[in-house]
Amino acid sequence: MTFEPNSNAPYNVSWLLTNNCNYSCGFCWRVLDRKKLSLADALSITQKLAAAGMSKMSWAGGEPLLFKGLKTLIEETSRLGVETMLITNGALIDRVWPTGLPQGLDWLTLPLEGIGDAINVRAGRQEGHYERVLKLLDRYRSEPVRLKMNSVALGFNTKELLEIPQHLDAWGVERWKVFQFYPVRGFAEANRQEYEMSDEAFEEFRVELLERCERLDVRATVVAESTRDLDNSYYTLSPDGCVYVSMDGKDVYLGDLAKDDPGIIFANPLLDKDKYNERSGWVLEPRRPIWKG
Question: What value, to the nearest 5°, has the Cα angle with vertex 168 and ends 173 and 210?
Fold first, then answer.
């Protein structure tokens, strides 16, 4: 599928679908003070976004597999011609979808905070998380779903993150995004001292990471985003369908998609269009055939 850009529409959308989660990671910045919508309301907002020109939807949380009706939401979003991405910790996949991933899921994103279970547990993941993610990557690399991985750079895990690049292609990961820890809300804000890394430390890590990927000739696309990159650059929905941007360590709400026009919200100058397009432009590129390392 080839996507055509629409400069007046939010073509790349992220939805923190629920604040419920089966994990309790201390660095998590999920939205805790907004209630999730019903499936019917979520479908209505999805249809509104698709009509406005949305090309890709990413669902995160919390844990989106705890949203009742997620399979229906994925299938309907795909039917509308929108590329779909699920961002999950992976622990509930077999329980929620025992017969396999739903039709219409284009991307599966799984998280790792380094090589080995110890660093992932220290970062707040459940015991066995590392092995579980590797098993899921191995299972789905042979299926028609693209694999992405997310990581959070913390004050103590950059060494372990630097061990990941040599494995990306073998795991079949096509995109790897590393976020600087951002204490913007929720658990992350409460646990700032335990997890925070300075801007200077992140920049040093980012340079070393990208240089290592280049030396290893990593085929996967690797992106490292600082808190400054995150600010004002995401068209993000909270669980209740309201759109917000983060800026200077705080959230600013731009509108409510239950009643407001997606394009008018998108036009708000607090959403930096240059940063948004720089971060989202890959969504508009023609898709290459799925490759597996």
Answer: 110
Q: Nearest CA to 70 among 89, 47, 93, 99?
A: 93
Cα–Cα distance for residue pair 186/182, rounded to 1 Å: 11
Q: What is the pLDDT confidence band of residue 1, given thresholds at 50, 70 and 90?
A: very low
Residues 266 and 169: their CA atoms lie apart, in Å, by: 35
64, 18 Cβ separation under 8 angstroms: yes
What is the spatial distance between Cα 191 and Cα 123, in angstroms, rounded to a whole number?
Answer: 11
Q: Is the pLDDT of residue 5 over 60?
A: no
Q: pTM above the 0.85 mark?
A: yes
- pLDDT tens digits, one per residue of 210-229: 999 999 999 999 999 999 99
132-to-93, 110, 116 alpha-carbon distances in Å: 11, 10, 11
Task: Kindly tell me the burial class for residue 129, based on how many C-beta atoms sit within 10 Å of its own C-beta (0-12, 13-18, 19 or more).
Answer: buried
| pLDDT band with cut points at 50, 70 and 90 for residue 112 | very high
* DSSP for residue 227: H
Q: Tokens for 162?
A: 């630097």
Strand-strand pairing, 56-60 and 12-16: parallel
At 225, the amino acid letter reads E
Q: Which tokens go with 110?
A: 């799984």
The whole-number average pLDDT for the span 18-26 is 92
Strand partners, 242: 256
Q: What is the mean pLDDT of residues 116-134?
A: 96
Contact 126, 91 (CB under 8 A): yes
β-pair type (242-247, 236-237): antiparallel
Contact in structure between 59 and 87 (CB atoms under 8 Å)? yes
CA distance 108 to 137: 9
Closest CA to 240 of 1, 22, 36: 36
